[in-house]
Amino acid sequence: MMRRRTTLLTGCTALVLALGATACGGGPVSAGGGDKALDGQTVTVAGVWSGSEQKNFQKVLDAFTEKTGAKTQFVSTGDNVSTVVGSKIEGGNAPDVVMVPQVGVLQQFAKKGWLKPLSPAAQKTISADYAPVWKKYGSVDGTLYGLYFKAAHKSTVWYSPEAFTQAGVKPPKSYDELLKAGHTVSDSGLAAFAVAGQDGWTLTDWFENIYLSQAGPEKYDALAAHKLKWSDPSVVEALTTLGKLFKDKQLIAGGQKEALNTDFPGSVEKVFGPKAEAGMVYEGDFVAGVAHDQFGKAIGKDANFFPFPAVGGGTAPVVSGGDAAVVLKDAKNAKAGMKLLEYLATPEAAAVWAKAGGFLSPNKKLDLAQYGDDVTRATAKSLVDAGDTVRFDMSDQAPAAFGGTKGTGEWKLLQDFLRDPSDPKATAAKLEAAAAKAYQD
Question: Domain locations in the chain?
C-alpha cells in the first residue's frame, strides 16, 4: 500500500559513499561514553530501510549500544509499514520503535492509539534543535509523537556540468529561465529533461514544487489537508505550468511516450549513464546516490544540482520528505525505545550517519562539517536554512488511496496528464473526485 520514495532503490541513496567525513576535531564520530544504563535490554526497531541505508542506520544503533549498553534488533518492513506493524501489534509482537516514512502513516498510527507521546526530554531537544515545522509534522492533535531523524530534499534539479558547458548555459534562477536553458541544451543536441513518468510519485513531486512556489505555502497546506479542493483555480494554474513542460517535445527525452516508459533509475541513467540522452533530471537529493553508485559519477564534478527555481512571482520551493521515529505504546520495551528516540534527537546520532553518507538531517545543531562532501553539505544547509518554509511532500500527507498507490489516484491521473496535458481543468476535476473519495474513506 505505502511506497517509499527514497528507498525505491536498495543502496542507491548514498550520496557519496566514497568520500569519508570526520568530526569537527578531525577524529572519527562516536557515540561517546555513556553509563550503560540499559545493559541487558534489547530495543527492536522496524523500518523500510534495506541495503546501504539499513547498514548505515545500524551504525547509529551500534553507537547507541556503545553509549547505553542496550542491544538493538532492526526489522525491515518493506514498503507496507502500516500493514506489517499492524499485524505485529495484533500478534502481540509490537516493535519498540518504528521509523515511519510518511506523515499520513504517523497520523494513522496515532489515531489508532498505537503511539506513545514523546518524553519531555525528547520534546525539549526537538523544540530547541529543530525548526517548528518538523514538530508540526510529528504531531497529531497537538501531541508530539514523532522525531524526524532522516530527511530528503526534494527541490533539487540535477544536471550534467558537461552538458551545460557544451550548451553554454548556467544553472537558472527562475522557472522561465529553466525552460529557456532547457531549449538551449536541446539545441546543442541533448534533450533538456529525463522524466520518470513510469513512476507516478515523481510526477507528484514535479507538481508539488510548482504548486508551492506558485500558489504559496498557505494554499499548499490547505490542499494537502484537502481543505482546498483540487478543482481550485490555483491547481489548474499549476497544472497549466507543468503542462507546458510536458507537451514540449524539445524538452523531454523521447517525448511523452518514452517518459511514461521511464522509471526513476532510468531517468537518472539518461543523464548520467554511459549514453547521455538528456542534460537534466529533476528529483530529490537521492539522485546523487544513483549517479555515483551506479554510474561512477563524481558528485560536484560530473554531476551537480541547483535548487528548484521560483515559479512566477513566488519564492523558490523547499519540499521535503522524511522518516520519523515513533515509540509504540504496546511495545515490550517502550521505555528503552524512548531512550533510543532521545538519542536519535541529538546531533551526535545524526553525525554517525552523516559520516557514512546518503543522509540529511533536519537537526540545526548538526555541524555541516560532519557531511562527507560539499554537495551534501549544500543540500543539508538548504534544508536547514529553509526553516519553517519547508513543506512536507503533499502526497505523503494524503491517504494512500489518493497519494501513494500505483495505478490509481494522483499517481495515475498525473501520468494521464503527462500523456495528454491539453486540459488542465479536466485533470483538476478528476483529481478532486479521487481526493474526495479517498479522504472520505
Answer: 5-152+320-392, 156-317+398-440
Alpha-carbon gap, residue 48 to 172, rounded angstroms: 35
What pLDDT score was predicted for residue 35? 64
Q: What is residue 428's three-state secondary structure?
A: helix
Residue 323 is placed in which grid cell?
Answer: 522518516
Please determine, looking at this structure, whether the domain spanning 5-152+320-392 carries the CATH number 2.60.40.1180: no
- Of 155, 188, 72, 100, nearest to 389 by C-alpha is 155
**pLDDT on residue 52:** 85
Q: Do domains 5-152+320-392 and 156-317+398-440 have the same CATH topology?
A: yes
Confidence of residue 413 (pLDDT cuts 50, 70, 90): very high
Q: What is the pLDDT of residues 166-190, one digit of tens each?
A: 999 999 999 999 999 999 999 999 9
pLDDT-derived band at 111 (thresholds 50, 70, 90) equals very high
Q: What percent of the chain has pLDDT over 70?
A: 92
C-alpha cell recorded at residue 109: 498510527
d(CA 299, CA 33): 35
Q: Order of strands across the sheet with 278-282?
A: 191-193, 278-282, 156-159, 304-307
The CA dihedral of 16, 22, 24, 28, to the nearest 10 degrees, is 150
Instruction: Say if CB 295 and CB 269 are below 8 A apart.
Output: yes
What's domain 156-317+398-440's architecture?
3-Layer(aba) Sandwich (3.40)
Question: Quick check: 302 and 49 in contact, CB under 8 A?
Answer: no
pLDDT digits (tens, 9 = 90+) for 371-403: 988 999 999 999 999 999 999 999 989 888 899
In angstroms, the Cα distances linking 223 to 11, 217, 231, 318, 436 are 33, 10, 10, 16, 12
Closest-CA residue to 152 (of 4, 285, 344): 285
Amino acid at 392: F
- With residues binned 3-state (H G I as helix, E B as strand, rest as coil), the percentages for the chain, rounded to 5, are 50, 15, 40
- pTM (2 d.p.): 0.85
pLDDT band at 34 (very low <50, low <70, confident <90, very high): low
Average pLDDT, the chain: 90
Q: Are 221 and 391 in contact (CB under 8 A)?
A: yes
Report CA-CA distances (Å) from 61 to 51, 77, 223, 225, 392.
Answer: 15, 17, 37, 35, 26
